[in-house]
Give the backbone structure.
Amino acid sequence: MFKRATNHQEPAVQITVDGLPVTARRGDTVSAAILTAGCVEPYRYTAVNGTPRAPYCMMGVCFDCLVTIDGIGNRQGCLIPVSDGMVITRQNGKREIES
Amino acid sequence: MSFPESLHAAYDVIVIGAGPAGLAAAATTAEAGLRTLLVDENSAPGGQIYRAITTSPLKNSSILGKDYEAGNDLVHTFEKSGADRLAGCTVWSLDRERVVGLSCGGEARLIKAERVIIATGAMERPFPIPGWTLPGVMTIGAGQTLLKSSGLIPSGRLALAGQGPLLWLYAAQILRAGGHIAAIFDTTPLANYISAAPHLPGFVFSPYWIKGLGLIREVKRVVKIVTGVTRLEAQGKNKLQTLVWEAGSRTGSIDLDVLMLHQGVVPHVNLAMAAGIKHEWDDIQLCFRPVLDESGNSSIKGIMIAGDGAGIGGAESAAERGRLAAIDTVANLRPDALAQIPSRDNVRNRLAQTMRGRAFLDHLYRPSKVFRIPQDASTIVCRCEEITAGEIRASIAIGATGPNQLKAYRRTGMGPCQGRLCGLTVTELMADERGKSPEEIGYYRLRSPVKPISLAELASIPQDETAIKAVVRG
């Protein structure tokens, strides 16, 4: 959905999203990295009706950017900067308790 | 990032939010020698308007503009002031005793202050149109955040819709950054040009006049503008594909990949309301704002509000209101230090200058009813619980009287965003449907935690003897 406007000089940061390798840049939030990667759409499915969503406000108020980061669910991806080796999992619909 | 060792158990002043108001307030109280802590949810200072001012990959001002650079001075002055700063730190509670609940790197703390200055700023007004939950639809503020912090521009076909200074500023920034805008759909009601006219003289003498006209001209040269837009509908199966629009009797549609919406900003009230601060309806700015004295003192002793959270005034006035709140704080806690900081009269004069022209903007960009109160029954109002305008009207028809009772009918406002994205829409829709004023209908009753916090974080709060005795048997 987004591309880099400038010849970006910030250092690369390697993360994975649903197991796929994604190269982000220092200064990106998790949401910015996913919106730029292009390989993971939709961003998430809602827990209520399972409808596709993507970040709406990018400033921490809408909660449409929720993702699982390093095993912790429902994190606001738009507020959390990427760091090397970060493991991000999309949240698809209702969560289930693993037995 | 977790809490640093140097964090004190209590502070003279805690300032919440590192935008212009918060940076200016914290710098001023710290310069006066008060032990000051500035907490902010983002990893870098600046708030929204000066977002990523110290970290943006767009290093020169040719894209973002000179006004953005003003954030550098605020950050620089703050950094010299000696105030402590907690970045990437969420405030999830504030009570009448001025105890602030903080969460940082998976741990939580409760820290008390003699004064708390809330500078949590504004958020974009909800823009509920059919299809606004589709991936590909986002706010103009969201687009600008991505531009400032990561140098990102939309790929594919982009349109902007709505009204207000931010729309034109972002459009110009995108063009300067090499982006393309397929069309702009201007929703400014034509009648607003008449109601704003009496306030034009104040605006003409403000710096916004030249800047604003310049931006609009810069954009209009290259982008197709549709004015007087009266209906917008985003369509698509799993993501945005088409925008259908009406402007009076004219209609049309356009294929899009990204649609950005904006109809002004409103105070972000969640923390202040949860603390119990009295708010009132502002019928010009069409939002709830806190009841404050001239310095920013709220209805709760020792808690102040500065910046756009106190009522929309823009970035420059936010910084001055931050300083006013700080001066009042110093006058109360350390009056002998007043000579070291700017005088109240100087700050008041500068504030008056920054507020020139505001009345014109308020009237010109007062959003129309059709974009505040969804007319289509299928339009989602509560994005979290996916509740439509039709479902809310049906609940009103069988007896729901106000936003808090409506929660029991539909769970509106009870999802993760805690009513931020539906609160104003629900109040205005219920007021309209029931023939009452928004003041009479009221707002959601907000409570802490105002941001989600895990049990592990709560459990990490250091316990004193009393707390342990309260739960340990025998």
About this structure: The two ends of chain B are 38 Å apart (CA to CA). Chain B touches chain A through 54 residues (CB under 8 Å). Chain B has 19 helices and 22 strands. The longest strand of chain B covers residues 107-118.
